[in-house]
Prior knowledge:
Elements (H helix, E strand, L loop, with lengths): L1 H19 L15 E6 L2 E6 L2 E4 L3 E7 L9 E7 L6 E4 L11 E6 L4 E4 L2 E9 L3 E10 L2 E11 L2
Antiparallel strand pairs: 1-2, 1-11, 3-4, 4-5, 5-7, 6-9, 7-8, 9-10, 10-11
Amino acid sequence: MKLFKKTLLILAIFAGFTFQSCSSDDDSGSQNDDTYIRFTAGGEDFNYADPATAGSQNLTINGQNGNDNTVSTYSSVSIWFPLQITTGTYDFSGDFFQDGDYKLNLESTALNLDGWSETGSVIITAISSDYIEGTFTGTIEGVAITNGEFRAFNL
């Protein structure tokens, strides 16, 4: 009887993995529409689908369009948070890192911009085990960052 139960358990686990990986909407080439970073800078709209979330000494959400910063369409954005992130409104601080800092960095070849937000803030509106969501505004090298919003995976 024990052998039968173990065999049945192994088959159930194997079947679970098999059916989970055979989703009818599985498209490994598509991006995750659930995660994004969007904003307007210098009158230009930026939209980063499926941003990466990384964590070490802090939590960072990164978006990138293109992979060659010599091309006129290249841009990247990073939003930095402390590891112990909570909902609320937080001011961005310059480019010197201290524990608890919130940062916004933007590089855009089209805007000839590569810097850290001197002013502005981020509003963390929701945190779950899966996602971090919020809005942001700022100014980088005199360029206004407006209508910022993000939804990214939480670590």
